[in-house]
Amino acid sequence: MYAQMIASQASDEDPKRLAAFQKRIDAGEKIEPKDWMPSEYRKTLIRQIGQHAHSEIVGQLPEGNWITRAPTLERKAILLAKVQDEAGHGLYLYCAAETLGISRDQLTEMLLDGRMKYSSIFNYPTLTWADIGAIGWLVDGAAIMNQVPLQRTSFGPYARAMIRICKEESFHQRQGFDIMMKMCNGSKEQKTMAQNALDRFWYPSLMMFGPSDSDSIHSEQSMAWKIKMNSNDELRQKFVDQTVPQANLLRLTVPDPNLKWKDKRKGYDFTMPDWDEFLAVINGNGPCNADRLSARKKAWTEGQWVRDGLQAHAKKNANIMIAAE
Ligand code: BYC
């Protein structure tokens, strides 16, 4: 269906139509699924929303790793709720992508056979309980920085999904900061664990915003179409400026000797992550890529009977409704 949709659109992308489409975007109008859109706009949205949905689902794995080992019943309940929220975010996003003419099954197959990506951050291991704090604080913090502007993105279903997701992400970020606070005010060993988690998650969190603007392939067109509202470097800078004072409050040290506040431009100078490491991770060679994909493949294969059952149930209900009409 998706391929047909793209093929049928390719012929009608005349400059007048494209200009009228751009005019709608520039005027701040929302594009809805039944509206005409350039095939590249559709393709970019499917890529970005699909990658985002996969990230939410794969993102459950490093945190799920600690559900059985959370230090208290309360922490366990909170973590469980957070991980469930991530599943919900994945579902809202798959639904938004489906309005573009691609099914959740197709998107999942594209993830499993390597045609689609998910966020680099989830290819790092969660070695201690402090990592759960660092993920909430830094990873959800970076996600919020990226996703709040996406509430105003030009594609209606994506923008509306982001509104709900962002509300939940704020709670996630606060629970992470709360864990870090507790550990930083705890024993010497706990403080050391918190510092160690910050040391390991700082640069991977900076990578979440994508390559530097000069190396970003999609930013220019995506920003013109308001699929992205800010450039990768703009958001990364905002994240650093917001997070460093929080680290200071925790009395933790950001692992960057070049971090320096610049009064003139009201922002920090900081060291960029290692882009070779970033490329290795997004190309499948990070510390946990193989584990994450094999966990997703296992869940997909073993969940086949659930999908079959749900399909059969939906079909039966549809037949009952037709018979009743
Ligand atoms: N990881 O031209 P560029 C979350 C790829 S948070 C992997 O700048 P674009 C969560 C990029 O796909 C995470 N791949 O691309 C939080 C492209 O490759 P392809 C998910 C990355 O799309 C807490 C190439 O590099 N959030 O879900 O304009 C708990 C060139 O990059 C990454 C979103 O997805 C990366 N970090 O900008 C649970 C937010 N960065 O596709 C869950 C929506 C770049 O051409 N997405 N690449 O093969 C976005 O805002 C944008 O897609 C990005 C990248 C800023 C990520």
Keywords:
globular; single chain; binds benzoyl coenzyme A; mainly alpha; two-stranded antiparallel ribbon
Tell me the β content: under 5%
Order of helices and strands: HHHHHHHHHHHEEHHH
> Main sheet, how many strands, which sense, barrel?
2 strands, antiparallel
Cα gyration radius (Å):
21 Å
User: What is the helix tally?
Assistant: 14
Bound molecules: benzoyl coenzyme A
Terminal CA distance:
29 Å
Say how many strands there are: 2
Helix content: 55-70%
| Low-confidence blocks of residues | none
Tell me what you see in this structure.
The protein has 325 residues and is mostly helical. Helices cover 68% and strands 2% of the residues. It contains 14 helices and 2 strands. Strand 1 and strand 2 (267-269) form a beta hairpin. It is globular. The chain starts with a helix and ends with a helix. The mean pLDDT is 94. Benzoyl coenzyme A binds next to helix 3, helix 7 and helix 10.
